[in-house]
Amino acid sequence: MRVRGHALAVVMRTPGRERELLAGFLASEGVIGQGDDLLAVEACFDPETGEPAPNVWNAALAEGVSFDPERSRFAVVGSSCGLCGTRTLEELEKDLPSLAPAPAQVEALLESGFDRLRQVQPLFEATGAVHGAALLTEQGELLDFAEDVGRHNAVDKILGARLLADDYPLVNPVALLVTGRISFEIVQKAALAGVPVLAGIGAPTGLAVELATRSGQTLFGMVRNGCANRYGA
Fold it and tell me: Which of 4, 36, 98, 181 is 20 to 30 Å apart from 221, CA to CA?
């Protein structure tokens, strides 16, 4: 990943939806906050072949959007860790927006939402080795979904898609669904996007519960077999 030609990070990801991935990553890192902050995301050209390099992407920021390359990670971000390469945990603390309260009876939507997510995961069906994430509407439909070897990447892809559609922070969010455990940085990504409910089929970490409580986010873990644990607001 590059921003204005400067190296930002190397991200281990499942190929596809690179524009959304980079947009979501920049939003969750606090580099951009809305669609107008991002002018373009394009594949860089290989100087030897003159063809686009499929694994090197650059983000062009709008004039007036600050970016200090000296404060960038300049590190590899593994598929299992959204914090790898960050110098201190304090650097990840963001000013979180006020979140709407969780909709009434949201619990009834979660398990059916995960059932729908499972139905649109062809890579998981084929390999059993990738994560999924989805945005759930109040009517129980999937607004968007993505698969990736990293659950953080799957989240970035769908939140980045909303940013590119000029819907960031989200206007009418209900819930973000993720497979696997819920970590601190996924809570942060959802809270920054204005999503009031976060649910996972795995358990949250203690730090994730603390951040969800501070931000006023409603957090559900272990959503399976008609049951769920509720944390936070």
Answer: 98
